[in-house]
Design brief:
The chain starts with a helix and ends in a 20-residue tail after the last helix. The radius of gyration is 17 Å and the shape is globular. By secondary structure, it is mostly helical.
């Protein structure tokens, strides 16, 4: 993956996770046509839009219920109860 693809892929993920083109456009204060051009690679994603899209994804990820439990540093990946 090229680093130039990251902003475009970030917008695509934001659209998937955050309710579609219109919802993301509203959240980023941009029109849907611009979003479509950026996602398709027709135009370069502006840096401020990319940064805001990352924020949307982080917010969406924080509110999604996890599919499976991922061990974190507090339990060292242990499955059994600690004593």
């Amino acid at each position: 993956m090229k680093s130039s693809d990251v902003p475009r892929m970030t917008l695509r993920r934001a659209v998937e996770w955050c309710g579609g083109i219109d919802a993301v456009g509203d959240a980023l204060n941009v029109d849907g046509e611009s979003l479509k051009k950026w996602i398709s690679g027709e135009e370069k994603v502006p840096q401020p839009v990319f940064v805001q899209a990352v924020g949307l994804i982080l917010e969406a990820a924080a509110t999604k219920s996890p599919r499976g439990r991922t061990p974190d540093s507090s339990d060292s990946g242990r499955k059994e109860r600690r004593h």
